[in-house]
Amino acid sequence: MKKHAKKSDLTHPSKNGYERITPADLKHSGEINKLYMDFIARAKTEREAHDEALLLLEAAGFRNMAAHEKNGTRLRPGDRVYRSCEGKTLMAVTVGKKPLEAGMHIVGGHTDSPRIDLKQNPLYENTGMAMLDTHYYGGIKKYQWVTIPLALHGVFVKPDGKKVKVTIGEDPSDPVFCITDLLPHLAQDQNKKSAAEAIPGEGLDVVAGTIPVNEKDRKEKFKYKVLKILGAKYGITEADFLSAELEIVPAGHPREAGLDRSMVLAYGHDDRVCAYAGLKALLDLKGIPEYTAAVLLCDKEEIGSVGATGMASNFFENTAAELLNLTTSSYSELALKRALSNSWMISADVNALFDPMFPSVYEKRNSALINHGVCVSKYGGARGKSGSSDASAEFMAHIRRIFDRNGVIWQTGELGKVDQGGGGTIAHLMARYGMQVVDCGVGLFSMHAPMELAGKLDIFMSYKGYLAFLKDGRK
Question: How many domains does the chain fold into?
Answer without folding.
Answer: 2
